[in-house]
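Write out the 3D structure for:
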Amino acid sequence: MAPLEPSSLEYQIFLILVILLLVAKLSFSIYLGTKIYKKTKNQGKFTFDFIFGVFTLMVCLFVSRLLYLFYDFFLTQFNPANFLNPDALTVWAFASLISTIGYSAVMFTVDYRVLHFRLKGIFAYIILGVGIFDFIYVMGGFVNTEDAFELVNGILIISNVLAIIIPIIFFYIGIKTTGLRKIAFVIAFGVIIFSIGSSLVLQPIIAPLRDAFGDTVQIPIFLMFFLFKLIGLGMFSYGVTQFSL
């Protein structure tokens, strides 16, 4: 696969979509941060609540996507031949670790604040453990083949699979609590849509599609990636600010 040229249509489309996604994540972070500030000011104290957990997730997703932008557009140019470049692997490892920190933070908050710690933080610790394992595995120099890189990418899918716990929880809350049904379902579907979008560009999924349909398949995949993540983030962020038990 030839590197994408900055003048190519694919490159321009991908770059515009990623920049828009970064703007969306930054906007959601500011929106949630403002909510937290106003709540803290009104109550006179800071509370480690559900909104703060999601705010942490948004900030982590913004930073990780910024690193992924550098990884995709400058270090690898979407060329699998460059995936094993040491500099590219380092940036990828930090981006992946930061994103899993965000996922584990929101999972811990849901457990602690919504479920009153019934899950004992187990799922949050597993997600964080996945991120740390991948980071150590990459930084330790163990990723030196395409199969090894697909392995660490595949392991990250665990985070998205475990994220299914969140919509299950909110579907349950929506079914059991009539007054929260609409907001709980918005949060649940937002997480599902976002998780699907996040998984679309992982190598175990995109590599077989690229082999089967050619390089141009990346364009519709990236379009779906962008739309799913943007819609999911919007639904999730809105639902979180409206949700209260």
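The radius of gyration is 18 Å.
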